[in-house]
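Technical note accompanying the year-one report. For the benefit of new consortium partners, we illustrate the data format agreed upon in the data management plan: each record pairs a sequence with a structure-token string. No post-processing was applied to the example shown here.
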Amino acid sequence: MLGAAVLCLSHQALAKEYIIKFNGDTKAHAAFLENLNATPLLKNMYLIDIPDTEAASMQVYNLANSPEIEYVENNKNLSIFPMNIDAAKAAVAELVSDSPEFVAPADNPPIPNPPKRPEIGRDPLLQHQWGMRDNQIQKAWKQGGSMGDPNVVVAVIDTGVDYTHEDLVYNMWRNPNEIPDNNIDDDGNGFVDDIVGWDFVSDDNLPYDLSMNPFQLIFQGGNAGHGTHCAGNIAARAYNGKGITGVAPHVKIMAMRFLSETGQGTTAAAIQAIKYAVDNGAHILSNSWGSQGDDPNDPNTQALKEAIQYAQDHNVLFVAAAGNGRQGAGYDNDSDSKPAYPASYDHGAIISVAALDENDSLGKFSNWGKNTVDIGAPGVKIYSTVPQGKYADTVFDKFGITVNWDGTSMATPFVSGAAALYLSANPSANWLEIKNAILNSSTPIPALSNKSVSGGKLNVLNLMR
């Protein structure tokens, strides 16, 4: 079975890349791993790059059938969940292809020093955040006596974060044991100058949220600033006279980039991002990504499950998007033959999040599941931070094509922020206590009756009582 997994790549697999897990000590295989440029992922787990030769493939085949090997699986693709873009887009392609508006932004600006103190003033764009009104967020801060503890860290595992954004820069996590720009791994964690996080796509210390230009986004798909949008609703700074607020506006954001500007990533990069975040002090992992369908009996799913278990074993909560269905229509993660993952995995530390609109209706794209989806949260036309210091609830609105910031990806950060806010007020709470508090304080709504574990929507005011 394992040998077949090696030789028969699925359409989702990256040719020649595999994740291999040894049953025990790997010292005897050191030369083999070195020859294959093996990258360590978790204990006894490696990403290997197989040369395109019959001999190398046979060597891996033989290892896969060895009692020394627990499993070998394809390094599968993962992605941000697709937005619902109008199919009648090709008609305007010629009109916009040469427009100067459609220029991709620059990548990897330097990491700025944090301001010594944030400015003070009302958030002028808070009025656009219906999700914050729905959760009575300002009353919740007063009720719970906290706007977030700066020692609480939420890792946004995504396309990166615009760490220069005016509403995020003060709340970016700063590695306390790393000296910026000295080209030395001061803390000995294996990453040089990792000040705000790490980029596992480019393998550098600048996890910037590189987005596609709008033309490419609409006609090819990709990233519109996905990670930055998620970060804003978790922890955009409140009362700083700028922009918006996050649910927990005093906690810190750790930027983990494993999805590229095309919105694509790999299982191995996701594992690396999860492990880095856990090892470097993140308390909550916000995960607005996954697959559009996974066979739960597929043996090529063990590695990512182990990474989530690694987080759970270290008392780290894993908040995940329930998925955006297929062709714009949501489905039941309980009964579908290929439910969205990782949200549908059975780890206790996962909170799976569906998307709701302003009328408490389930987004037409949103997945659900009485046993596999835990709660709903705002996820339709969501206003937040986007790269280059901007704010938006609309990705694109030209030539008769309108694409809003909709998705279970947008709902997930609300729950991640709520978890961070609760932990700030209850610093001894473990992942199970945080999860139970969120689900037990939800407000029942008809749209999620028999369609989620809680049967309700996020209620931050109730949570903080």
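Partners are asked to follow this layout when depositing records. Confidence is low (pLDDT under 50) at residues 1-15.
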